[in-house]
Amino acid sequence: MNFCRYNDGRYGLVKNGDVYDISDLVADRSPRPAQRGDAFVRALPAIVAELTQHPPSAPSCSVEDAVFLSPVLNPTKLVAAPVNYEAHLAEARSNVELNFSKAVERIEKAGLFLKASSSLVGPGEGVATRFPERRCDHEIELAVVIGTTCSYVSEADALDYVAGYAIGLDMSIRGPEDRSFRKSPDTFSVLGPWMVTADAFGDPSNVSFTLRVNGELRQQSDTSKLVFSVPKLISWASEWYTLHPGDVIYTGTPDGVGPVTDGDVMDCIMDGIGTMAVKVRSFQTAALA
Ligand code: MN
Questions:
Q1: Gap from CA of 179 to ligand 1 centroid (Å)
Q2: Ligand 1 centroid – CA 286 distance (Å)
Q3: I need a surface site. Which of 30, 135, 141, 145 has the fewest CB within 10 A?
Q4: Ligand 1 centroid to 170 CA: how many Å?
Q5: For residue 140, what is the enclosing H or E element?
Q6: 69-288 maps to which CATH number?
Q7: For residue 13, how far is its CA from the centre of ligand 1 (angstroms)?
């Protein structure tokens, strides 16, 4: 099943080009008392069971008419993998505009990094640039949404803890500062257009994707080229942090990263998920025009 948040924060089931409003169902499943993590993702197994028994009958709107927000509202953290494709490592090492004359370590030495959860948006909100004089790049990545609280998960069991998958954009200001600082402004973590549940998505190890800017092909790769696989990333992240429902792992970007500026449109396509168009705007411009 494909789940979204849309318009004014409603929850939706996406099916055959339509969005069905399931907000009441999600509200009924919210935990009391509150627990860490995302209430919707925590309740997902119960919601899926309910929707399997009682499919919604009347759509709320078509996919074309919905404004998609991040399918996850309250992750405790966004974990991200740096330089997790050899071709991106090579371009980062060879381009001073990317490395700022600092050594680019391989992922096993660099470790993972965290992005502020307040940077998370959906495609309908767009990406807002704050520093027009600085280079701001797109990074398309397969994003993994954790479904169950876990710690010290083995690689063999790792995929059992996944709620679903979505297209991720790890937006990045280039410069000498730490990754977390440069990649955490509001809107710099895009997730969408919806989350495909893990059972529907299947194997994450051979997923093709492309990113175009204003129609020009910039990034094209597939997850078979990941240096650290999805299970390895989950296992590694869970050794360092307890993962909670709704936590997102951005799995890394391939080569072809490049700058975007106000007015650009990033068209993202990923196998098994769908497409999303993300507009770039200045920080002064309203999010939902
Ligand atoms: Mn990245």
A1: 9
A2: 26
A3: 30
A4: 5
A5: strand 140-146
A6: 3.90.850.10
A7: 28
Residue 28's pLDDT band (boundaries 50, 70, 90)?
A: confident
Burial class (CB in 10 A: 0-12, 13-18, 19+), 232: middle
Tokens of 22: 């399931």
Q: HSE-up of 184 (CA within 13 Å, CB side)? A: 15
For residue range 150-198, what is the model confidence (pLDDT) as tens digits?
Answer: 999 999 999 999 999 999 999 999 999 999 999 999 999 999 999 999 9
85 CA distance to ligand 1 middle (Å): 10
Query: Which ranges in the chain are annotated with CATH 3.90.850.10?
Result: 69-288
Could you tell me the distance, in angstroms and rounded to a whole number, from the CA of residue 82 to the centre of ligand 1?
A: 6
d(CA 77, CA 94): 31
In angstroms, the Cα distances linking 106 to 21, 41, 85, 154, 287 are: 44, 32, 10, 22, 36
CA-CA-CA-CA torsion sign (64, 272, 190, 256): negative
Dist. CA 183 → ligand 1 center (Å): 9
Name the DSSP class of 5. Answer: E
